Amino acid sequence: MAEGILRHLYWDRYEVFSAGTKPSSVHPMAIKVMKEVGIDISDHRSKSVYEFLGEEFDYVITVCDSAREECPYFPGAKRYLHRSFVDPSSADEDKMLEIFRKVRDEIFRWIEITFGE
């Protein structure tokens, strides 16, 4: 979701890549809640951070504690940022949609504060 939000808000300022320490598929609920706010991430794919080793980035951003601990070092990165969000896919089935929306909105606010002017 963070990749989609950052691309949506600041597509003209940042080239955005997203990857995980344990890549899987993009959760259907993430696609659904992002579509609710006009962002289509249905064509995104879950990638491994190891696909990007050797690349140089201005920012390396982690959005969960385990990713922060497991993320490899990117020597060319100018800045590392971290903010831990709840993993909405681990929520109870009956609260999952609500948690995905809450996390989406928290990510939106954090990105606006962190990268907005």
Outline of the structure:
This protein is mainly α and 117 residues long. The protein contains four helices and two strands; from the N terminus they run ααβαβα.
Indicate the topology.
Blueprint: H1 2-10, H2 28-36, E1 59-62, H3 65-70, E2 79-82, H4 96-115
Parallel strand pairs: 1-2
Report on the structure:
This protein has a single domain (2-110), classed as Rossmann fold. 38% of the residues lie in helices and 7% in strands. It contains four helices and two strands, in the order ααβαβα. A two-stranded parallel sheet has the order 1-2. Helix 1 packs across helix 4 (96-115) and helix 2 packs across helix 4. It is globular, with a radius of gyration of 14 Å.
Q: What best-fitting shape do the alpha-carbon axes yield?
A: globular
What share of residues are in beta strands? Answer: 5-15%
Tally of strands: 2
CATH topology: Rossmann fold
Number of helices: 4
Mean pLDDT, to the nearest integer, reads 90
Runs in which pLDDT lies below 50 for 5 or more consecutive residues are none
Alpha-beta classification: mainly alpha
Radius of gyration: 14 Å
